[in-house]
Amino acid sequence: MEKENASMKDFEKYLDLAGFGPGQVVEATVTGVDPAEGLSVDFGGKQEGRIQPSELVREPSSYKVGEKITAQILKINDEEGYAMLSELRPHRRMAERKVREAKDSGTPVKGYFVQQVSGGYIVKLFNVLDAFLPGSESLLRRDAEIPQGEHDFLIIDYTAGRRGRIVVSRKALVERQIQTFFESHKVGDVVEAKVERVRSSGATLKIGPLTATLPREEVSHDPSVSIHDALKEGETIKVKIVKLDPAQRLIEVSLKALEPDPWQTAAEKYRVGTIVRGVVKNIVPFGVFVNLEPGLDGLIHVSEIFWSSKKVDLKKFFKPGQMVEAEVVEVDPEKRRLALSYKRAQGDPWENVMERYKEGDIVEGTIVKVLPTGLIVEIEDGVTGLVPKSELSWNKVSDPGKLFRERQSLKMKILSIDSQNRRMRLSVKQTTPDPWEKAAESLKEGSVARAIVKAKLNSGYVLQLKDFSVEAFMPSSHAPEEMKEGAEIEVLVLRIIPERRKILVSQKKLEEMKDYEEYKKQMGGSQKTLGDFLKK
């Protein structure tokens, strides 16, 4: 029985040895690594397998114990109990087959640059095959550094055999990729792109071998979004193609095209007549831009800010970031225009003017225009009134421009309100007592008063009585000499006509009276009275 068992073991040993032989390709497991001697492997036979460094595809140190590789048995040394194997030879045959298939099918292969030689570069394919890359097919300048890492190449020439030759190209591959891209893509397609450079005017992106441009205005529907915040160099993003020109190899892409366009729903969302809230974005001479939502701005034209037509500095009334309410007056999605009205949102001030103002009220206002016939005065935005020339002063006013100026503040009395016709009649003089009442009570014929020369007429002088703020007239014959405007004099009241608001005075008669009084003193008195003097 023991003899039979021994014979069976010898037979199994024979079968194991007979199963492996030179030329056979096997799967081997790395059992040891020696950078100088190579690898020790277990290929399934009774012998230890050895692979010298020259028969490896990679550097010995790059292999790990337990790693599985494909190798070919070169020879078996039964006496010393080891077998020599090669990883390189089966790998080379496999690589040659793949190169041949890639040449026939036009499939790109991967490889890396080894060195620069005359006329081009040596490229290693599949770690075992040397290929030649002509400089004209490299897409590299002659003085450029050799690229690192793996790259794709197209086989443009292949000759098998010991003296076989492999020629590869990067240019042909890129040209084919470019052609394929333009043939397979159209405007509206969404593609992935890598951000290369970001500038204030826009960004450049890489889509495969092609360079695409992303203009600043295509970053977002919201123009306030910073391009530097939206894009980071090196990141991969999705964009939509908006322009394609194969002849110029031009591609323009958009980020905002992937966002919902707020103008598509603007007409429905912002109906004419509705009151909306927005943030003041920009202030310009012709109006105020208000942001209603990202990518959608409305304009409040300067004519829709105030009910009045006064010219003002808008920056004194509005600040960027300020929240305002406005009424929608026009929406045009095609022209991407939305018009707003600030004043309509505040309401027409004439609609309830009778609730705020009554006839007889004393109000304050600002002169907006000086006319020959009076003043236009604004009491509040949109509510103006007229002060007729006759209501400017208790005295006669010939030229309102000499007494009043634009933007001057005034107190006025409301004489009448016509809300239907948007009119209001005002008075400046009636905010103070009528000085003629005091003058009529205080002044009599024969009274002496102080006066200032206001104006010279052909027939005489217009005087202002200082203590009474009324005017008097002095004929030229009652002035002892030529007088200048602004001169202060004393005059004698000759006559008062209250119903006509007129006073007649004389400087000459006053001097004569003073002379007569002096004469009486010198003469020791007299029975004649002042009345007698005046009658004379």
Automatic annotation (TrEMBL):
Function: Binds mRNA; thus facilitating recognition of the initiation point. It is needed to translate mRNA with a short Shine-Dalgarno (SD) purine-rich sequence.
Coiled coil: none
PROSITE patterns, per the entry: S1
GO cellular component terms, semicolon-separated: cytosolic small ribosomal subunit
GO MF term list: mRNA binding; structural constituent of ribosome
Protein name in the entry: RNA-binding protein S1
Record-annotated S1 motif domain positions: 23-88, 188-256, 273-343, 360-429, 446-508
InterPro entries documented for this protein: CvfB_S1_st, NA-bd_OB-fold, Ribos_protein_bS1-like, Ribosomal_protein_S1-like, S1_domain
Keywords, comma-separated and alphabetical: Ribonucleoprotein, Ribosomal protein
GO BP annotations listed: translation
Organism per entry: Pseudothermotoga hypogea DSM 11164 = NBRC 106472
Family designation: Belongs to the bacterial ribosomal protein bS1 family.
SMART domains on file: S1
Pfam families: S1, S1_2
